[in-house]
Amino acid sequence: MNQPPITVSRVDVQRIEALLAQAAENDVVDALEQELLRATLVAPAEVPPQVVTMNSRVRCREEVSGREYTLTLVYPQEAGPGKVSVLAPIGAALLGLSVGQSIDWPGPGGKPLRVSILAIEYQPEAAGDYHL
Fold first, then answer.
1. Is residue 129 part of a domain?
2. Domains in the chain: how many in total?
3. For the residues of 26-68, what is the DSSP string, one character each?
4. Residue 33 has pLDDT above 80, yes or no
5. Residues 6 or more apart from 39 whose CB is under 8 A from it?
6. Is residue 131 part of a domain?
7. Residues 60-100: pLDDT tens digits?
8. By residue range, what is the domain housing residue 99?
9. β-pairing verdict for 83-85 and 102-106
10. Which of 16, 15, 18, 9 is nearest to 32 (CA)?
11. 10 Å Cβ neighbour count for 28?
12. pLDDT > 70? residue 12
């Protein structure tokens, strides 16, 4: 699968690792753990504005269907309409990607999906909302 370079805030990694420590073992948890291991970690103030972080509102496209989505990447307890959990397959795929990047990710039933980042409509770090 295509694995582009990703950048993740150290604060996001700490919070996600705490979630993963409590989460039941499954394919998404395993894949997210692997993503965090290969990520470039930076301080929140050093996150480039074009990178998807926790609580970012992102416009993306699923390439096979061509459908575009605007999603906010959130922690599981905040998931709901328009808000996708970082522990969901698409949420785990989005974390750390930059505008213009695509990633191949196993979708429902193991069917591969290709997700592309079109724009970041809001990123907490770029707005100075560090949630420390």
1. no
2. 1
3. -HHHHHHHHHHHHSEEE-GGGS-TTB--TT-EEEEEETTTTEE
4. yes
5. 6, 7, 8, 13, 96
6. no
7. 998 988 999 999 999 999 999 999 999 988 898 899 999 99
8. 7-122
9. unpaired
10. 16
11. 20
12. yes
* 57 within domain boundaries: yes
Domain containing residue 15: CATH number: 3.10.50.30
Q: What is the DSSP letter of 105?
A: E
Q: What is this structure's pTM? A: 0.89
Torsion angles phi and psi, residue 73, rounded to 5: -85, 120
Q: Phi then psi for 114, rounded to 5 degrees?
A: -120, 120
Distance from C-alpha of 105 to C-alpha of 11, rounded to nearest angstrom:
24
Q: Confirm whether 71 is domain-assigned.
A: yes
Beta carbons of 49 and 128 less than 8 angstroms apart: no
* Residue 132 scores a pLDDT above 80: no
Contacts of 107 (CB under 8 A, 6+ apart): 89, 90, 113
Pairwise CA distance, residues 49 & 1, whole Å: 26
User: 90 near 74, Cβ under 8 Å?
Assistant: no
